[in-house]
């Protein structure tokens, strides 16, 4: 079995806030972060999270696109 992480550890790994992790747990569909509940605690198996990440659509900026001063992607 792979290591179990709590939301804070997963948030650190992903570079997001714990509230973003919990939002990912509540999400429906393939974007939902895989997790297990153990005695009321939400935990994440490292192996399952890495597998889930590898199967997520890419959010890469298209070639030739740039960010404007508002942080929006423009062509």
Automatic annotation (TrEMBL):
InterPro entries: HTH_17, WH-like_DNA-bd_sf. Residues 9-56 form the Helix-turn-helix domain. Gene3D superfamilies: Winged helix-like DNA-binding domain superfamily/Winged helix DNA-binding domain. Residues 66-75 have a biased composition (Basic and acidic residues). Residues 55-75 are annotated as: Disordered. This is Helix-turn-helix domain-containing protein.
